[in-house]
Amino acid sequence: MTYKTARALTRRTLLKTSAMATVGTLAAPSILRAQSSELVIGCAGSHTAWMETIVAPHMKETIGADILFEGTKSSVNLEKMSSNKDAPYLSVVQMDDPVMIQAVEADLLTPITPDAVPNMTDLRTDATHMDGMWCNYVQPWAGIAYNTDKTDGVASWSALWEPANAGQIIIPSLQNTEGMWTLMSAAMLGSGLPFSEAQYEIDAAFAKLEELKPNLLTVYSTMSQAFNLLEQGEISMLSGNFSSYTLPRKAEGVPVDLAAPAEGIFAMPSGICLVKGGPNPELAQAYVNEMLGPVMQAAIADFASSVPANTTVTAGAVVPEGVQIYAPDWAFVASNRAEWIDRFDKLMAL
Amino acid sequence: MIMRLDRIGLLAVPGLAFLAVIYALPLVLLLFKSVQGVDGLTLITYIDFFGDEFNQVVLWRTLRVALLTTLLALAIAYPTAFAMARAKGIWLNVFLVALVLPMSLGVIVKAFAWSILFRSNGFLNTSLQSLGITDEPIRMLFTETALIIGAANVFLPFMVLPIYTVVRQLNRNLPEAASSLGATPWFRFTRVTLPLTLPGVVAGSAFTFSLAISMYVIPSLIVGERQQTLSMLIARSFLYLRNEPLGSTISAVLLAIAIFVVLFSSWLAGRLGARK
């Protein structure tokens, strides 16, 4: 009996088994992925709630896709695409417009065409960019989120600068796309120009941001933590937050609301694109088609309090009346963003 | 005998090969990028990095936070290690579980818990006001103090365990012998016990300092973007500025600090061991 056991584990058997196990372990993800109907989608971390509850079940039912989400920042999604350019593992990415521009410049995307994605013909004309390189699928609006136990509302962007709010404000880093709204507001207040012109007055914006520092508790790059502090009443206002995040929390009874300051609010750019050379290309096109179709558009717009991009859909967010919605010059933002991030970080740190 | 040593040495091959491919090779490539210029090798990114006031502030803050975290962890860990060394049976298990169990809890969960503790109406501020120590809430969230406390909490096991290992092996007869010769408790501690436990202190400090100087998630969550550290600068360079030479340069600076700490602690441990 002992002899048999000893023979069962010879050196050759051990080496052979170890080698097979190693090769099998390393190859398993590729084998499984190649054979499966899995689609890996890069998206924003804050989208996880509706991606899991609405999108994943719908995609399984309609196109038979097993959806795997990787929720993170747009810039991290861009880095994932860039680092894996020769062997992409993401099929579709949902990220912000300025980062889409960088992805197009790096030749990481393949165009969305009406032949493969028929629902794109129903989109608003301004929702398709750079000859179909990406489309906006929903559009939340951005203003100032506030704690309703601490303040009754926010009438103007200048409220962020009021001395009474010392230590009561958190703003996003410029690393986050929503960080642009505070920068634009600072440009508007600093230059005295409307948003459409003020967005190019960056020196005025940074001078005004310098004045905001005494009011800042911190600058975030992880939004959920900052929002948690707003909900707890540790701060009064969270600048640049958007309807798809604040309004669902308000609907759940949390003491928060989203203010639309009189000077204007902003349109959050939520884009969807096909990764060049990504796995399961036909399934990826079917996914994008469903995301732009009336069923998904209505469901996401309702859940995330956003404006649908599909013109046949009437559901979704109620945009505040009488307040202008601005969309910045994203090409200008994309070409200057790295320099602004560097300048912003130094301003906030020193 | 030599033949046998060689064959046993083969056991290290998988580990060395793994380290060479997964750790050393990417590091070499990273270091190369930090000195790669348009016209050949250059140190310009290093000159730019050390010449920038912002980088100097971040470098100094990173070193200061790592040092203070190490000192705080040491102050808590040293007596704890003695208590553990004296504990027996169920109490020893309680100590070990209390030390190891929190490591299984993610830093994100801990950071949210700390925000409840540190906020203006949180437990600490409420207690200070109830005791009459403060009149109004003091700011604790997003401060360097909160970062040091949080980091020391996360890295405490890496300080306690090396000291505990050394204290367990301490010959208890030596302090008693010193006592029988008339040594005071303070003299016994400073001249007998402390020198014998210093190798554990050095090892624990090296572990804690190395972890604290390279931490990324903890400062990101506790102090945010206004008080960046070197690791946050590295992420920012690669992900947002898309400046690979700068990211590689900061990585090289961080690596140089880590190598210095490891070599210095090895040298110190060797010196202390020789003296012992």
TrEMBL record, chain A:
Keywords: Signal. One of its GO terms (molecular function) is thiamine binding. GO terms for biological process: thiamine transport. Residues 1-21 form the signal peptide. InterPro entries: TAT_signal (IPR006311). GO terms for cellular component: outer membrane-bounded periplasmic space. This is Putative spermidine/putrescine transport system substrate-binding protein. The lineage of its organism: Bacteria, Pseudomonadati, Pseudomonadota, Alphaproteobacteria, Rhodobacterales.
Automatic annotation (TrEMBL), chain B:
It is found in: Cell membrane. Keywords: Cell membrane, Membrane, Transmembrane, Transmembrane helix, Transport. Signal peptide: none annotated. One of its GO terms (cellular component) is plasma membrane. The chain crosses the membrane at residues 58-78, 90-117, 146-167, 196-218, 246-269. Residues 59-265 form the ABC transmembrane type-1 domain. PROSITE patterns: ABC_TM1 (PS50928). It is a multi-pass membrane protein. Pfam families: BPD_transp_1 (PF00528). GO terms for biological process: transmembrane transport. Belongs to the binding-protein-dependent transport system permease family. CysTW subfamily. PANTHER family: ABC TRANSPORTER PERMEASE PROTEIN, INNER MEMBRANE ABC TRANSPORTER PERMEASE PROTEIN YDCU-RELATED-RELATED. This is Putative spermidine/putrescine transport system permease protein. It comes from Yoonia sediminilitoris.
